[in-house]
Specification:
The protein is an alpha/beta fold. The protein contains five helices and six strands, in the order βαβαββαααββ. A four-stranded parallel sheet has the order 5-2-1-6, with helices on one face. Strands 3-4 form a two-stranded antiparallel ribbon. The N and C termini lie far apart (about 40 Å).
């Protein structure tokens, strides 16, 4: 009789991956990144343990959105005060803060629980091609686009 294998919290070796977002579709890239952050690409995936790897996304400013989505989709914030509603299109947000657009897309594809906050800390997003994680020796990750 075989027993189901459950990974323990400290026994999973976490790798580092780097994704070049230049010319990638935002949603398609976010799906693959979220899968790696959750650890679903590993055979020892366990739902209640963080078995995912670290992911570095570079060139976030060069990510694309299909059709007119950049102009039509909006990001809404509310400060809690009267008149504090801020609505901004993804087009202007990509120019101002492209890191937040990519992080938001990946965050929404992670599970909605405490473990997702831990997974999101393993995501590093950078505007340009430079990142300070060379010492971790990240390996390039291919994204199905």
């Amino acid at each position: 009789m075989r027993q189901t294998y459950y990974a323990k919290a400290g026994e999973v070796q976490q790798k580092w991956h780097v994704v070049d977002a230049e010319g990638q579709r935002l949603g398609r890239m976010a799906v693959d990144v979220a899968t790696v952050l959750m650890g679903k690409h590993r055979p020892e995936y366990t739902p209640h343990v963080d078995t995912g790897d670290y992911v570095i996304i570079i060139n976030a400013e060069k990510v694309t959105m299909s059709g007119d989505k950049a102009r039509q989709r909006t990001k809404t914030r509310y400060s809690g005060y009267p008149g504090g509603l801020k609505i901004e299109t993804y087009e202007s947000l990509l120019e101002r803060k492209p890191e937040s657009v990519v992080e938001d897309a990946v965050r929404r594809m992670l599970p909605k629980n405490r473990l997702s906050r831990q997974m999101l800390k393993k995501l590093k997003v950078y505007r340009g091609p430079e990142h300070p994680h060379q010492s971790q020796r990240p390996e390039p990750m291919t994204v199905n686009a």
